[in-house]
Amino acid sequence: MNRPAHSAMEWPVGGKMDKVSTCRAAYLIPFLDVLRDIGAPVDRELERAHLPTMVEEKPDDLISIFLAMEYLDRSARREGIDDLGWHWVKRFSASDFSAELLVALQALPTVKARLDCLSNLIALEDSDTRVGLIGFNGSAEVYCDSKSPEIPSDPISEWTQVTVLIEAVRSITGENWSPDEIRFKSDFSVCDDARNANPNTRFLTQSAHTSIIMPSSVLAASKLTSAAAQVPEPNIHETLDGLENLKRLIRPYLRGGTPKMIMFAEILDVRPRSLQRKLQQAGTSFSDLIETTRFEMAAELLAESDAPLIDVAMTLGYENQSNFGRSFRRVAGISPGRYRRKVIGREHVA
Q: Whole-prediction pTM value?
């Protein structure tokens, strides 16, 4: 799969970086489980693809959509898997949604309300996806498409998109519900296993949308809820600019060490000098971005656990506790131990 030129990050006028195309690592993990089960060299290939090798430990980390798509396409071809997307479907459920999305969905009483909520909060799961509803002749088409025309249609990603929609509906109707039709934008042969698992569903390819079709009456299906809806702010990640999103993308790599700028330039599909220049225009540098991101991760770990400082240092990829302390002090002005005692109010743990 060839990545479109400059698709992973755009550089708008004025030096403010646009968002990086990302999704939660939770959507990659079931694919890795499939590949591990057949003995594929997952860790080696993740590193080759410039994806974080510890991705399975943190499902809420963000990863590059383009790198993930390239990795999965290459793995499917190398291992001879024609229906990798369908294998993913059998391992994914609504419980894999982000905690914020789950809380919002579970508080809403009808299918329509939950689909509207999914439309508002889909950026929690994938920065480049949109969800919408089209009504016609007593039926409803619910689509889940890429917002970017540069992202090619692909059976693997399209199976994830329709499954997200189906799981949202099933959260009201139950796990045995199936849509009347499942439509894909790409052209491929739906495997027999998928057809047998959905005997009452018609499959269409080369459609205008990646979508599911169901009677409009299903939208009114309801389920009693025990709490008033507490819906997060819509499109919460839409408020993040590219620099903040880049920091989120860097996070999983820091657990394995310090990534090189040249590698991240490759990840973002830009020249290293271009990345360096744009970071300067945004008021930072790659080394400062690494240090700031590590500090934010350290502050979270210090607040959330009583782990010894050496464990925090190792978790964040520092060579030793001394390097961790010096780096933390440069940003915070105090040591990690003092920060934990004085700022957070936790006792020091040796």
A: 0.82
